[in-house]
Amino acid sequence: MSQHCDCLLTNVHLATGLQNGLPYGEIESGILAMHDGRIVYAGPAKGAPAFSADKHLDCQEAWATPGLVDCHTHLVYGGDRAREFEMRLQGVGYEEISRAGGGIVSTVKHTREASEEALFVSAKKRALCLLEEGVTTLEIKSGYGLELESELKMLRVARRLGEELALTVRTTFLGAHALPPEFSASEGDPRDEYISLVCEQMIPAVASAGLADAVDVFCEGIGFSPAQCERVFVAAQAAGLPIKGHVEQLSDLKGARLAASYGALSVDHIEYLAETDVAAIKSSGSVAVLLPGAYYFLNEQQKPPVAALREHHIPMAVATDLNPGTSPSASLLLAMNQAAVLFGLTPEEALRGATRNGALALGLTNKGLLAAGMDADVALWDIDHPCELSYGVNMNKPSHVWQGGVCRA
Ligand code: NIG
Ligand code: FE
């Protein structure tokens, strides 16, 4: 008697991502069966159960990988920062622009002014670029509203992208991204005052509206101090939300240690993370999210401590950081290439970073592997070997993508 499934892929090489002793968790000449949104079998054809299927695809020795996961983006925003790019090319630094009232705050102005519909339309274009290259799960942060209504507007747009596109969207509230301009003039420490607003009003409101799956902060000289970030972590936990952190991007404020001590899902950027602090993030199980697009675009020189992360077996994810200021790039495959070329990840690490470890950075334990019981998020590639995904720039698009078992093609 054969087992029935919705969709059966045969004659397919599987980059399962499982640690089966082979590179990429490879299974040559396998089959993959999907039913009710889940993978029910991913393994060798030989010895597999007999399947009957509503849809059957002979993959002609193409490679299947887990659907890609972009676990760190800011893709909902108004305007652009092309003029700022020109200034930076003339030698003005990112932090200098920010301190002069440009940078994040200039995107805040355009995002506040934009209608919800206009934000949706522009964000959808960027999300579609990611979707076309095999992304099935996408994280989107707020943080360009910096007042409750505008933050809620951004998060609603992010949720709507998940409803209208064939994507799983996870939203992150990043109210502690920058000091809103209207606070600069306030007496006392305006940053402390704004953080009080974030903790006492914004986090409870965002949580009760069910619009955020996590809370993030920008722990940096031009962002918020570790003490201020800690207040945000406490408020997030009180609201039942997991935390993440933009930490050690431009300097070493020990934000990663702090975030890890609050059980952060991930610590992101970490170019300035001291090797001696790597062990401290091990115990929290936090994922180290590498964002080589921002490193590249800002022409940074300080690289994250990849060898130490490897040595301590800390899962490394790779994401685009898609945003108008530091990483205007809507290609996760390019981020994989940058992670390999600039940070020295192996193509296998880069693929794991954009699949399994990206999923773990979002707390999604059911995604990022090709194995029975996992969500049926699968990309099929006409390539000879999975290392090609990190090698070719703008060369690879998946021929088919399944998200929750539904084929997009
Ligand atoms: O991840 N570092 C803080 N946030 C973004 C940049 C945001 C911006 O410049 O608009 C980042 O690099
Ligand atoms: Fe970011």
Number of strands: 16
Rg on CA atoms, Å: 21 Å
Strand proportion, as a percent range, falls in 15-25%
Q: Outline the biggest β-sheet.
A: 8 strands, mixed
In helices, the fraction of residues equals 25-40%
Mean pLDDT rating = 97
Text of the CATH class of the largest domain: Alpha Beta
- Helix/strand structural class: alpha/beta
Number of helix segments?
15
Entry summary:
The chain has helices at residues 82-89, 94-99, 104-113, 116-132, 148-164, 190-208, 226-238, 255-261, 275-282, 292-297, 306-311, 332-343, 347-353, 356-361, 388-391, and strands at 3-15, 26-35, 38-44, 51-58, 63-66, 68-70, 135-141, 168-176, 214-219, 244-247, 266-269, 287-290, 316-318, 378-381, 400-403, 406-407. It has 409 residues and is an alpha/beta fold.
Q: Please, could you describe this protein's structure?
A:
- The chain is of the alpha/beta class.
- It folds into two domains: 3-67 and 368-407, Roll (Urease, subunit C, domain 1); 68-361, TIM Barrel.
- The chain has 15 helices and 16 strands.
- It has helices at 82-89, 94-99, 104-113, 116-132, 148-164, 190-208, 226-238, 255-261, 275-282, 292-297, 306-311, 332-343, 347-353, 356-361, 388-391, and strands at residues 3-15, 26-35, 38-44, 51-58, 63-66, 68-70, 135-141, 168-176, 214-219, 244-247, 266-269, 287-290, 316-318, 378-381, 400-403, 406-407.
- Strands 1, 2, 3, 4, 5, 14, 15 and 16 form an eight-stranded mixed β-sheet that branches. Strands 6-7-8-9-10-11-12-13 form an eight-stranded parallel β-sheet.
- Helix 6 (190-208) runs parallel beside helix 7 (226-238) and helix 12 (332-343) crosses helix 13 (347-353).
- The mean pLDDT is 97.
